[in-house]
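Hi there,

I know you've been waiting on this one. I reran it after we fixed the sequence typo, so this is the corrected version. Both the input and the resulting structure follow.
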Amino acid sequence: MANNLHHELAVQYVGICGSDLQKLRSDEPPQLTDLGHEVVASYDGEYAAINPMIECGGCPPCQQDSPMHCDDLQAVGRNLPGGLSGSITVPEQNIVAVDYDIPELGVLCDPYAVAVHGLERTEQSSEMMIVGDGVLSQLCLTYLALNRTTLERCTLVTKDASRIHAMQEAYQKTLRDYGIEFQCLDASSPQIEAERPQTVIEAVGRGQSSTLNLAIEAVQNRGTILSFGVFPIGYAAGLTIRTLLYKEVSLRGSNSYNHGDFARAASQIGQNQDLFMPMLGETYDIQDAGTAIAAASTGSNPIPKKVVVAL
């Protein structure tokens, strides 16, 4: 590999991701020490957010600044020991020092970099819809507030009707301060089909097709659907393909991020810590990792938050 693994780091915090939960629900669940790619580690006496993807640096995707498509990709928490092992080894370029008031915020760098990567590559529009109410959906809302100059209206579709009021209360003022009209709807609301946004973000994934089909029905003709959702390996989604094709909709995925996306994510979190703090949930000690995973699986009410494990 072009990048030698030369920094062994002590892990301080690990965020529990939905992809970790998917692996634990598989037929052959991994050991806990194999999990955890949302990592904050100690480095030269400072806290650092860790980009978990380690590319070879020489293959065509790497040369095209697409390390997530590397022919020989290695990743912390995937085919390398995870953050829950307590120690990881990564190259210099994967270490980003973070001087946050609350160092646990660093676990959001990975999922926020996913949002940065996908949304920076999506054509700006005046109306957008986000399907899903998890942490990634909230990170997308925050990115839109900080970076979207043409967005005028954003609708968030919750999977749980009991969260509508809390999500509206949590984000309406923030988005209004940035000149964006905001509303929350339940997934069963007939108003969804009346919205007709130019762009719909699907941020749920999992082994189901309903959220992609909701996006297909909601998006306007010749609009764009951007899916961040992580679906199980081999899952065959049942899509309303006739509607997708007749509406001439562009459906595309967004896979992870590159080093520049990760650095921008870390910087934006540092400059706007107050906007990201509400997404942090409870922090559990490593001895209570099982409880942390159970809490992440159950979800937080009234608003989903990132569960963190401290080592």
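Quick highlight: The chain has two domains: 7-112+256-310, 123-253.

Best,
R. S.
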